[in-house]
Every structure is written in structure tokens, then in C-alpha cells.
Amino acid sequence: MSKICVIGTGYVGLVTGTCFADLGNDVMCLDVDETRISKLNQNIMPIYEPGLEQVVSANRKAGRLTFTTNFEEALEDADFAFIAVGTPSGVDGEADLQYVRSAAEAVADLVNHPIVVVNKSTVPVGTGDWVADIIKKRRAGKPLEFSVVSNPEFLREGSALNDFMKPDRVVLGSTNRDAANQVAQLYNTLRCPILITDLRTAEMIKYASNAFLATRISFINEIANICEELGADVTEVATGMGYDNRIGRAFLDAGLGWGGSCFPKDVKALAHMAVLHGTQPQLLQAVMDINRNQRRRIIFKLRKALGNLNEKVIGVLGLSFKPNTDDIREAPSLEIVHLLQNEGAVVKAYDPQAMENASAMMKNIVLCDNPYQVAEGADAIILATEWNEFRQIDFERLHKAMRQPIIMDGRNLWDPNQLKEMGFVYFGVGRGT
Ligand code: NAD
Ligand code: UGA
Q1: Spatial separation of the C-alpha atoms in residues 373 and 381, rounded to whole Å
Q2: Which of 209, 235, 262 is the best mutation target for the ligand 2 pocket, counting ligand atoms within 8 Å of the beta carbon and taking the most?
Q3: Which of 158, 227, 290, 384 is a good FRET partner for 298, with 20 to 30 A between their CA atoms?
Q4: What is the number of other CB atoms lying within 10 angstroms of the CB of residue 275?
Q5: pTM (predicted TM-score)
Q6: pLDDT tens for residues 43-87?
Q7: What ipTM was reported for this prediction?
């Protein structure tokens, strides 16, 4: 059993802390956000993540998991300090490291025993060395025995607990092999491959992985657009490609493109890093351009179908950046709603989980209680997020409620033939047949 302090109790910090506690460690999760910590101390989850509440509750009861805003208390006796603070996009697309810096400074100012500082945040290559330097310089008069290990996180929102507990791999990078081995011990029971490498390589593995996944999606979206013009169906193209073991089927779903709190900022940060160091990230640039155009393309298709969008009522189903999360950061829906409103459309919307976040971030949008309210008087419906709830929809009821039965299936969730037979005018993404 190890004593672990997790600095930053957001998606990654909360899941990491909870899972390490569940594996038998003594974990204290720390955050500067008092409301967040006070909620967690009442077992109120600050995020929607399936299964999280039960595991937090069980581990709090067992006394293995505590939440605090007190840095001294959290760092006292900790064997490991995991940094899991945000690294949002700065003005030029670079990763903003101010929160990582203040976490490193807290360790330097408050710790007086040997400690392993583990960086879980997604950070530019070289940040591990930079963190070590910050700590060393602040402790110039009173050296601290510490090592920095990079341990990038690969979990996905919506399946975070499962991804943490059953990872495809754990990546550890350090200049100190012993420190990396100590962190590896924490993961030993998960029985997954553990790659131990140097700091910079570990940091790059994280960016390269996210950028590669985003590239696959942009690739299939480009193929989808070509399919539309040539009369092929991209969903079957992806299936046919996916049978090839060298390709695989995952992350080949064409649609409105990738959003969320990570792909957009990480691809941007990697491209920024490349430019800063004198290389031209042409592929990354194309990957970002294709992604942005996917959202514009659906508006183009809608405008073509309706003549123009002024005073048209458009329903949007799904607002979160993907199903099973309430997160709408960089969600395709945000840009689509903005583009629709810009052209004078009235936008109505419903999401199973993201309504609270949407009401805070989206202006002049009519938020509805269910898909049928959205359909009432609508000239078209755009499906922006493929929630399971929308698979089971009563299409007859939807059809009756709409003013014009136009469906823009932005996630290729529905069966085009079924909908066409029911009298809908159906548009998918890359389903040109
Ligand atoms: P988040 O915004 O949900 O949470 C960050 C938390 O850190 C916030 O609660 C904030 O109050 C807290 N914080 C900021 N400064 C602090 C400080 N000095 N001391 C203590 N707490 C502080 O962020 P997140 O989604 O958990 O992401 C964290 C990092 O992990 C990012 O670098 C992100 O790219 C990476 N990541 C995220 C995911 C994901 O699915 N969200 C997956 C893999 C990696
Ligand atoms: C992604 C990665 O999958 C995680 O491994 C990584 O840890 C995380 O980013 C991170 O660094 O934060 P996440 O953003 O939670 O996880 O969600 P994904 O399931 O990867 O989906 C990202 C976006 O791509 C969503 O908008 C989704 O709709 C879109 N997507 C995904 C597609 O458009 N097509 C696909 O085939 C797959």
C-alpha cells in the first residue's frame, strides 16, 4: 500500500485517485476548487461518469479515499504526488502550463521527505525536465530528494473507470529507472504491458497517440465526403477496411468530427511544438482543417435542402462531444448551433446529460425535455451525438411533430432505408448510395 496525493481532482485526477484507492492505496485528492471538494465530501460527483459515484463512495467509506483543499495535509508523507491538473490551449495553441507550474511549486514548498512526482497531465515534450528544474531551483538552499516520472493517461470520458482498470498499456518515462519502477508497482495488478522509457519519449507517446486517433477520424471523414460524391457508403467502407488486421475498425466512424477537451487542444499543441522547433506539421494541419470543415459541410447540406436557414426551426439531438458524458467542451454541436444561429435559424435542442452545461454555454437556444419536443414544428433535425437513447426513438412520433421531415444524421446512427420508407428526407455522412 502506498500513500498517494493527487493534485487536481478533475476527470483524470478523480478517476486516478479513486482507482488507486480501489487498488488498496491510501489516496488523498487535492484541488484548489473548494466547491468541487466540498461536493465530493458529500459524495456528489462534479462530473457525469458512469459507475464513478459507487466506487468513490465505497472507497471513502473504507477510509482509503479523502478529498481536501489543504496542500500540507495532502502532501504530508505522500510517497507519490500525481499531477493531474488541466493543460488548456494558450493563445497560439500552445499548452498553458500555469497549473502544472503551481503544482510543482507546491511540492517544492511543502514536501520535506523523498517523493516521486508523477505527471499525468498531457504536457509538451520537455515539461518533465522543466518541472524537475522548478523544484530544484526553489529548493536551492534545502535540496529535496525527488524524481519526476511521466505517466500519460489514455482514459476516455464515458468509460474512464474501465479504461483505467483495464488499460491497453501503461507508459512511464523517467531519467530515474528506480522511480519509474516504483510507479510501475502501483499498476502491477492490472496485468497490462508497462513500457518504461525516457521522459521525453513518454510525453511524446501521449501526443502521438491522440494525434493518430484524430488523424484516423479525419481520414475517414475525407473518405466519407468523397463517398457522398461517388455514391458509396462510408460505413461499409470502414467495415471493409477494418477487417484488415493492419487497419482495424476502431476510430473509423465518419461524422461531425472529433471534439472534447483533449483531441482539439492536443493536436493544436503538437502542431505548435513542431512549428516552434522548425518542422512543418502539414499532416496535422490537414487533420484540423478537415475536422473544422465537417461541421460546415452539414450546414451547407442543410442550406441546400431548405433553400436558406433564416427563421427555419432546426432541432439538434445531442450536445455533448460524444455519448455517455455531460462534457460539451469543443463539442461539434457548439459550432453547429453557432453557424445555424448566424444564418437566422431558431435552434431547439435536447441532450440526455449535457443540458446544464449547455444552458451555461449556449445562448438563445431553446432547451427541450425530450426529442419529441425538439421535433415540434422543426424544419429539420440534426443528430449531433449518438446517444443510445436516440437509437430507440419513436420515428412516427417524430415525423408527425416535424414541419418538414428532414433528418441530418451527423453520426450515421440510423438506418437510411428505414427512415426513407417512413417518409423522411435522410442525409447521413458519406452515405452516397
Ligand atoms: P479538469 O479541468 O477536469 O481538471 C483539472 C483540475 O485541476 C480542476 O479541478 C482544477 O481546479 C484543478 N487544479 C488546477 N490547478 C490546481 C492546483 N495548482 N492544485 C490543485 N488543483 C488544481 O482536467 P482533466 O480533464 O482532468 O485533464 C487533466 C489533464 O489530463 C489534462 O492535461 C488533460 O489533457 C489530460 N487528460 C485528460 C483526459 C480526459 O478524458 N479528460 C484524458 C487523458 C488525459
Ligand atoms: C480521447 C482518447 O480516446 C483517449 O485515449 C485520451 O486519453 C483522451 O482523448 C484524452 O487525452 O483526453 P475522449 O476525448 O474522451 O478520449 O473521447 P474519444 O472517445 O476518443 O472521442 C473523441 C472524439 O472523437 C469525440 O468527439 C467522438 O465523437 C469522435 N470520434 C471518435 C469520431 O468522430 N469517430 C470515431 O470513430 C471515434
Answers
A1: 12
A2: 262
A3: 158
A4: 16
A5: 0.96
A6: 999 998 999 999 999 999 999 999 999 999 999 999 999 999 999
A7: 0.98
Task: For 308-357, write each residue's pLDDT tens digit.
Answer: 999 999 999 999 999 999 999 999 999 999 999 999 999 999 999 999 99
Length of the chain in residues, anyone?
433
Say what the alpha-carbon torsion angle 155, 156, 161, 163 is, to the nearest 10 degrees: -50
**DSSP codes joined into one string, 71-87:** HHHHHTT-SEEEE----
Cell of 199: 521522459
Please tell me if the CB atom of residue 102 comes closer than 6 angstroms to any atom of ligand 1: yes
Cα within 13 Å of Cα(418), Cβ side: 10
C-alpha cell at 262: 483533449
Alpha helix stretches (DSSP H) within 188-262: 199-230, 234-242
Give the distance (Å) from ligand 2 centre to CA of residue 256. Answer: 13
- Stated as kind and residue range, the H or E segment containing 258 is none
Same fold, 3-197 and 213-427: yes
Active-site amino acid positions = 262
Domain ranges of the chain: 3-197, 213-427
Q: Cell triple for residue 19?
A: 482507482
Put the strands of the sheet holding 313-317 in their side by side order. 366-367, 346-350, 313-317, 380-383, 406-409, 425-427
What does the DSSP 8-state code read for residue 354?
A: -
Q: CB of 9 within 8 A of CB of 67?
A: yes
CATH topology of domain 213-427: Rossmann fold (3.40.50)
3-class DSSP state for residue 329? coil
